[in-house]
Amino acid sequence: MNNLLEMFAQRTFERNTNTKVRIAFKGSHVVQFRSETYVSTCDKRTRFADELSPTSREGRAANRSTAFIRRRSTVGEMDEAEEARGSTAVPAALGPRRFLVTGGARGLGAAIVKRLAETGASGLILDRAVDPSESYAWPTVAVDVTNETALRETIQADIEKNGPFNGLVAAAGIVPEWHDPVNIDLEMLNRTLAVNLTGFVATMKYVVPTMPRGSTIVAIGSLNSWRGDPNLLAYAASKHAVLGAVRSAALSLGPRGIRVNAVAPGPVATEALLSRIESRGEVTGLSQAEALRASEKLTALGALATPDDISNAVIFLSGSQSAAITGQLLAIDGGLL
Ligand SMILES: NC(=O)c1ccc[n+]([C@@H]2O[C@H](COP(=O)([O-])OP(=O)(O)OC[C@H]3O[C@@H](n4cnc5c(N)ncnc54)[C@H](O)[C@@H]3O)[C@@H](O)[C@H]2O)c1
């Protein structure tokens, strides 16, 4: 590990100071430091200093770089192969990580599984509705996330067989029919909370105990994690609650090196959204195309986010490029401001 740290400390220091360095460590401190300072990047005349004291200006800067790298490498999940390649610029390099994706059989969850698999990650999909004729990227088990016993048994059996997960993406979710605070069906409210909130928390409950440092959790929240909706009280309440769970879990799990974040998609034209638009047509008087155009017009970019946009944000929040980000809700909505 020390060789890798040396390499990273050197690279960070060189990038920041335009100085070529050789650093030797004892424990976590610089004991030997050679530098060649470029007078300018074009003109490679150098000033050469040998064995600078660790208390010199350069020595102190190198120690700071090293401390920074140490912090990042315990909080982030940079695996040693990735560090050795120095490929921090490639967000897709999730490599041999293992993810659990709930709701991964369809819609946004399925798009996220596809992108994760493209990055080399393996994993398990849990979904209430599994189509046996479909070929999924990863093994897929039919489980309802509100059935705690089935959820626990499935997760624990998979961990025993294949090892711990170091990534969780909680995409299982439902959107109820339109309602208001007077005509609301309280069973529907409880069901919405049970899937969107309790299902997410229950999944964390059984995945987290074996998660190694550097693991990540990403929940699919919604714009309704911070905005109300006159027709979707139950949904907005459940997605606000998801954000509360994300922030609280981020605080509890941060010291264990596990990051917890959420994405907030704006409207994304998944099958589920299109069929909701269709069924609301009687009330809104809008065709599917008109309703989508109306939503697009509300965005700064004049376009809705796509499943790929959401997947890219999940990859970012699951990768080392977001190593200092936890407890956050990232809006991916084309700018619904
Ligand atoms: N599509 C959008 O516009 C949009 C916007 C904001 C947030 N979201 C959120 O993204 C997530 C996915 O939405 P989508 O549009 O892809 O919907 P979707 O219906 O296509 O996908 C949801 C998946 O979750 C599964 N699921 C539902 N209840 C489950 C349960 N109890 N146990 C296990 N699996 C269950 C479904 O079978 C389905 O495969 C949801 O949490 C949704 O609230 C979607």
From TrEMBL:
MF annotations from Gene Ontology: oxidoreductase activity
Key words of the record: NAD, Oxidoreductase
UniProt cross-references to InterPro entries, sorted A to Z: KR_dom, NAD(P)-bd_dom_sf, SDR_fam
Stored Gene3D superfamilies: NAD(P)-binding Rossmann-like Domain
CDD domains named among the record's database cross-references: SDR_c
Residue span(s) of domain Ketoreductase: 97-266
Family: Belongs to the short-chain dehydrogenases/reductases (SDR) family.
This protein's name: NAD(P)-dependent dehydrogenase (Short-subunit alcohol dehydrogenase family)
The organism of origin for this protein: Rhodoglobus vestalii
